[in-house]
Design goal:
Blueprint (H helix, E strand, L loop, with lengths): L1 H8 L6 H11 L4 H17 L10 H14 L4 H18 L25 H8 L4 H13 L3 H5 L6 E2 L4 E4 L8 E4 L5 H22 L1 E2 L6 H4 L19 E2 L6 E2 L5 H15 L7 H14 L4 H8 L4 H4 L51 H25 L9
Parallel strand pairs: 4-6
Antiparallel strand pairs: 1-2, 2-3, 5-6
Length: 394
């Protein structure tokens, strides 16, 4: 009888997806990696007729990856993520080594140049953002932070004396230091005064806690009520943890900043497909244009490999890798004349007097940048036309 009771009381073995989650968490992978891997393991099982992965092998895996590449035409990064998830499932969770997948069609990773905004375009976008999202976006550009890093900043990570920001548990769980722009100190201090009032109200009246990484809340029981551990950009609403019965205030959601940036970009007239991460690209590119060395920029961005930082050397504002086109030796075409030289009747919307007042901010910024360059280029072209053919034979 006792043996039967022991058999009934024995816990059921964990399900496959729970085993995947436990294996990911025991290795310290990020929650985003856990979410992505569980998604692809579930999708692989559904694609294979809901068969258990232990009953499948390389042919089923190859068919799934081939369908992603050929039938669904997913991007190269998506296909590689799915392959990594299945590889983790078999190698780590099931303890099986996969062989014979070398002939599986794999999408080739494209070599893309990052989108970079000019300083005028950044200014036009930030001018149309307000409140907390505007300050967070300014930190993205002014300090080169990632979106996840800026929303997860804590008060203790901002050092006004040293004028630096310490990024904790960034990409790859690496800490790093980056600069705190002096132009944002007053705005950031004003914002923190408001956050401190919210913190005092939470701790004094409503007993709202702040979440801590790992098990620091057990190691330091008073830390959730300390000012230094509070979020720099807290969420407007709180949430109740059903396991502990405590109410927590999380940091501002990334989508809040993303929506505000998108709305500002659309209103600014900037046509580039920019996102919040574009501000980080622009930060690195403008530092390179300012004469800072790659090694310094690598440390500020937190890149493990210098080759990752070197991609910004290809988007410097030099126009065609600094090469001047031979078309400068020809007479200027009528359609290529600078705006300031065209007759008002033939200039179009930008050439008519007063038309620039109704133009979009992006068009105004483009015209203001190109007009001086057009005048100098036109003068250079005139000088080039008087040059003998023998002097420009090379």
């Amino acid at each position: 009888m006792s043996e039967n009771r022991a058999e009934v009381a024995a816990p059921a073995p964990p399900r496959l997806l729970d085993r995947v989650r436990n294996a990911i968490r025991s290795r310290g992978y990020s929650p985003r990696t856990e979410k992505a891997y569980v998604f692809w393991v579930r999708r692989f099982i559904v694609f294979s007729g809901r068969r258990h992965p232990e009953a499948m092998a390389e042919p089923e895996i190859s068919r799934f990856l081939e369908a992603l590449a050929t039938r669904l035409r997913v991007s190269a990064s998506t296909q590689n993520q799915a392959f990594s998830a299945i590889l983790f499932l078999y190698r780590t969770v099931l303890g099986r080594e996969l062989k014979g997948l070398g002939g599986t069609p794999r999408a080739k990773l494209p070599e893309r140049v990052p989108t970079v905004l000019s300083p005028d375009e950044v200014q036009a976008i930030l001018d149309r953002m307000h409140g907390v999202p505007a300050l967070a976006a300014a930190l993205l550009y002014g300090a080169g932070l990632r979106l996840s890093e800026v929303v997860q900043l804590r008060v203790k990570d901002i050092d006004f004396d040293q004028k630096e920001i310490i990024v904790r548990r960034g990409k790859g769980k690496k800490d790093r230091r980056t600069l705190l722009p002096a132009e944002l100190e007053v705005a950031l201090l004003t914002h923190l005064i408001k956050v401190e009032k919210l913190f005092e109200r939470d701790t004094r009246w409503t007993h709202v806690y702040v979440s801590l990484p790992d098990r620091l809340s057990q190691k330091y029981p008073n830390a959730p009520h300390e000012w230094g551990w509070q979020w720099v950009f807290p969420a407007a609403r709180t949430w109740l943890d059903p396991a502990t019965g405590r109410r927590f205030r999380h940091h501002m959601d990334e989508s809040v900043l993303q929506r505000a940036f998108h709305k500002a970009r659309m209103g600014s007239g900037v046509a580039k497909p920019a996102s919040c991460h574009t501000l980080r690209h622009s930060f690195a590119t403008h530092l390179l244009e300012g004469g800072y060395d790659l090694r310094t920029i690598q440390e500020l961005l937190g890149h493990a490999d210098i080759s990752t930082t070197m991609i910004y050397t290809h988007v410097l504002n030099r126009g065609g890798l600094g090469v001047r086109s031979p078309i400068r030796f020809l007479r200027p075409l009528q359609c290529a004349k600078p705006i300031h030289q065209l007759a008002p009747a033939a200039a179009g919307a930008l050439g008519r007097p007063g038309a620039m007042e109704t133009a979009s901010p992006g068009t105004k910024a483009l015209a203001s940048q190109r007009a001086p360059a057009a005048r100098s280029a036109d003068a250079g072209a005139g000088a080039g036309r008087s040059t003998p053919d023998s002097d420009r034979s090379n």
